[in-house]
């Protein structure tokens, strides 16, 4: 179990490092296309830094508002608060904010920037369909995201994906407005820069590359949170049973959006399960491993 946790942490750190390298490459490509070289790269990094700082401070409030989450009343949701408090005491975590989402689909997510500034939100459907042991497993999964700083990693990953997509779109639009020519300082011949062609092609595909990388980070963090949750509760069958119920439930989480899909314990957005030749390609952009794979992994612990 501990080897799996360490392996997932190393791979996630490596993936974030790759994100930074990709962002620098995008900045360089933008600099080549708009004709400002190093200045373009620096401007791209500064822009991304501002976005990351904004996300760091505001991501939790935005996620809770988008999901229409409200604070869980301690009297009305006493069982929920008791389970969260018990798990926090056992794991040495400060108690996060506890929120309720009025949604019939069983689901939950954690958000925030660190264990001292975190929140857990669960749907009414989860409370209705899970027994105490299963609910404890789901809450332990979300608290594991908090303890392992997954909430921060996922926020940074999503921000970097957004930065790369926005920068790529801006550069391509600027070229379009300029008639497809690349601005080259001190040179009136704007059309013969092979680096610009490479940069243009790279900018077209970089958002897809970034999206696939972000999905890979999210999948690894979900696996790590499953294993960490079993370590926290010391009872894998509880989370296994919860994941089996989530697998068998077809209710769509209407409170989820594409912007928050990576945060939930189960892939919340409905879609076609492709079993054909393109299934591997589709899975590259899935933010969660298949529930069956997660269940089988926990059974092997």
UniProtKB/TrEMBL annotation:
Protein's cellular compartments: Cell membrane
Membrane topology category: Multi-pass membrane protein
Transmembrane helix is among the record's keywords: yes
GO molecular function: metal ion binding; metalloendopeptidase activity
Segments crossing the lipid bilayer: 12-36, 42-59, 151-172, 192-210
The entry's keywords: Cell membrane, Hydrolase, Membrane, Metal-binding, Metalloprotease, Protease, Transmembrane, Transmembrane helix, Zinc
GO cellular component terms given for this protein: plasma membrane
Gene3D superfamilies: Metalloproteases ('zincins'), catalytic domain
Biological processes, Gene Ontology terms: proteolysis
Residue stretches making up the Peptidase M48 domain: 75-300
Record InterPro entries: HtpX_protease, Pept_M48_protease_HtpX, Peptidase_M48
Cofactor(s) listed in the protein's UniProt record: Zn(2+)
Pfam entry (one): Peptidase_M48
Keyword Zinc: yes
Similarity comment: Belongs to the peptidase M48B family.
Name listed for the protein in its UniProt record: Unannotated protein
């Amino acid at each position: 179990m501990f080897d799996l946790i360490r392996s997932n942490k190393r791979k996630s750190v490596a993936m974030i490092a790759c994100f930074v390298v990709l962002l620098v490459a995008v900045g360089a490509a933008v600099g080549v296309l708009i004709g400002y070289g190093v200045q373009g790269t620096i401007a791209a990094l500064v822009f991304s830094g501002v976005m990351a700082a904004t996300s760091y401070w505001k991501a939790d409030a935005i996620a809770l508002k988008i999901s229409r989450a409200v604070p869980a009343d301690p009297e009305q949701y006493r069982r929920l608060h008791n389970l969260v408090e018990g798990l926090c005491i056992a794991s040495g975590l400060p108690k996060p904010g506890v929120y309720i989402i009025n949604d019939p689909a069983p689901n939950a997510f954690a958000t925030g920037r660190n264990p001292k500034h975190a929140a857990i939100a669960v749907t009414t459907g989860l409370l209705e369909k899970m027994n105490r042991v299963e609910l404890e497993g789901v809450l332990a999964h979300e608290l594991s995201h908090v303890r392992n700083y997954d909430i921060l990693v996922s926020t940074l990953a999503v921000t970097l994906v957004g930065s790369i997509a926005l920068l790529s779109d801006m550069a391509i639009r600027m070229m379009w407005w300029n008639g497809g020519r690349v601005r080259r300082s001190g040179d009136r011949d704007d059309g013969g820069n092979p680096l610009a062609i490479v940069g243009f092609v790279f900018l077209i595909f970089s958002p897809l590359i970034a999206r696939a990388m972000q999905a890979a980070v999210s999948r690894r963090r979900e696996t790590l949170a499953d294993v960490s949750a079993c370590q926290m509760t010391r009872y894998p069958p509880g989370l296994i049973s919860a994941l089996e119920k989530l697998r068998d439930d077809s209710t769509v989480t209407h409170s989820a959006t594409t912007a928050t899909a990576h945060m939930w314990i189960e892939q919340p957005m409905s879609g076609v399960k492709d079993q054909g030749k393109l299934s591997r390609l589709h899975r590259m952009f899935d933010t969660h491993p298949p529930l069956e794979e997660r269940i089988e992994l926990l059974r092997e612990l």
